[in-house]
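Lecture notes, unit on protein representations.

Consider one protein chain, 231 amino acids long.
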Amino acid sequence: MDSAYQLIDVPFHFRHVCWFCGEPSNQTLHFPIKRKDFIDCLHQPIALPSCAECLSLARQYYQRKDADGAVNSIWFCREKVKQSLVKRYQKDLAIGKNWTKEELANSEFEGGNFEGFARSAWFVFEVAQQRVNFTAWPLWCNGMAIEDIQAGKSFVFDGITFSDIDQAIDFYGKSYDLHLDFFKEVIQTVGIKRFAYAIRFCRLFVGSTPIERQRALRDLLLEHTSNETSL
């Protein structure tokens, strides 16, 4: 290993685990990737265990953000890797939104074209969910903590941890074919705590016209304002 990088402290039970997603690790990520960024990095250069996929995603993020100077913390990098995993496994994660384990087990797909899907779908969903939800152990290197500057930004909904509310909006917007701007306006109206309600409401207007959505927003705002006034 390059002597310019210090290996992070790895708890014994995580010694063969990817720091990003919890899958078996067979690679090492050196961060910052480029030596020219050492001076701007918010922490010392570190090396941490990674699986091949997360290593590739981290490098892709680094290359994209290099010109913007947004590569000065491993925590920024981790957030982008998580976002990339959610985007890459959008269809796998959506299985848990459209099915339950029991429904798949009793789907009566045996012998048909969907038999393979019924047999493996829930396992695929669980693997994707576990990788996205994996909480990395705190970063320590040479006895010093590396502060998580992204702490508190994540948004958890329906068993999936998103890096922030915007990623959750994008995920469910694509999963249910929602109009994203309309979805965002509904959430702004009812609040993040009613995220599930916002999804149900927007699903009623899939394929609607702009005028219909405007009317629905106006009625929703009136209803929401009336409810708050009555409290």
